[in-house]
Amino acid sequence: MSPVLNDDILLEIFSYFKGADDYQFLRTISLLSRNFCSLARPALYHSIDVSVDHPEGPDQPGDGEIALSQLCRTLDARPMYAHLVRRINFVWTNSGADERVVAILRKTRNLRYLGISRRKFFPAVGEVASLPPAAFLGENPMSYLRELDITDPTLRVEDVFCYLRIPTLETISINKSDHPSKAVLYPEDASARQILAIGSSAWQEVDSRPDSAKTLKLLDLGGDSATISHESLFHVLGTAKRVEKLRCKVPGEVVPGDYIHFMLATNIHTSLSPGAISQSLRPIKDSLVDLELDDFWMRWPGHDQSRLDLSAFTALKRLRVPRYCHIFAPSPHLSRNGVYKLLPPSLESLTVIFDNDAGFLYRTRAELHAYQTRPVERSSYHWVTELALLKDSRLPNLETVDIIEWADYHHWAEHDPNYCAVEYTSSEFRLPDDEALLFATAGIRLKIVLRDQEAKNNEHFIGIC
User: Fold this and answer.
1) How far apart are CA 173 and CA 159, in angstroms?
2) Residue 463 in contact with residue 422, Cβ under 8 Å?
3) Could you tell me the superkingdom of the organism this chain comes from (predicted)?
4) Are 430 and 436 a contacting pair, CB within 8 Å?
5) pTM
6) Distances from the Cα of 33 to the Cαs of 25, 39, 40, 338, in angstroms?
């Protein structure tokens, strides 16, 4: 095949080029241009992915190790290539790569996306991050960075504040765990599992992003092993200043010295306080549009009987929360009514997740399988019908309500003498016709999914009360 592409056309093609993954495309283009090598090399630096695993031995570096070293040498020899880089994703396990990663980040000033995944399974007690952002932000302010995705079990609150102050950032995702499906185990000090640990309990305002900074479209403080205290969340959001979507664990403080395998719960040594959550969210009450609070595998010693009050949030449209933020317990002795008072008029979508310790309906274990064939106590879900009855006056924008009981996982309780495995299935529950008509008339789509339970190997399971 004779070369037919002139240089201008080839450069135009490479202006849309995202990376070097499409080898067939590169091979075809190389056959159509006499100057492919000289023109393609800069384009290949637009997107860089390097994964450095543990080497086979001291004299046998892996492919990722070789690629990282080669990248460092190339950027040293040809600094102009560093200015072409728009996207970098680094994944590494051995600390020997830290200095080279920092050296590269000091040079790549035009980044739009930065992914950092420092996988270290057992950080030492009191260990600080060996890749602090100050190590490269001092020389490279990342003036064009739009998206940051970072995984580092040694991340500190100071590091998060440094990243938050990058004015062009629109998306920040932070994970303390080495892998989204696996919580890091700390052999000596599990308190390090807290994503942000601020010693002061003072809830004063903090330095925030400049007024000219972009609004954060997403601030994700999630991760199965990460929790955050109320005070820490308040300070982080105060620094962020404007956040449209927030995703995080329900705030709480991990029991010092207590660490549990990821299949079990994380013990929190402070009582659950939805009221404190409301206060910690206060800095972004006028910008928050979408809020997701997750409580997967978390246990609290108690509940202070407060409720999550978001009625003053002026922009909130979508809310996904665990049931105890608004509803206390499965007992009919504690009222569930009045949830509508806690929600803002701007709300369009509400999702409430019920954990294993409570159900949407008042019911005992013996009644679990029979709830669809016997009369249902309407008082147990009157808080839901209130949403339809009072839509016009309190929630004029509400369009969807989803009630979901956890039903898609196995629960293992090896630490319990009544060890068992429980498998859940789910089924949809329908309100009586007259109440279903209320939602249809109000223009609200209601979906209620309840769990069914089949215990295996043990009849003493007490997961639902």
Assistant:
1) 13
2) yes
3) Eukaryota
4) yes
5) 0.78
6) 13, 9, 10, 70
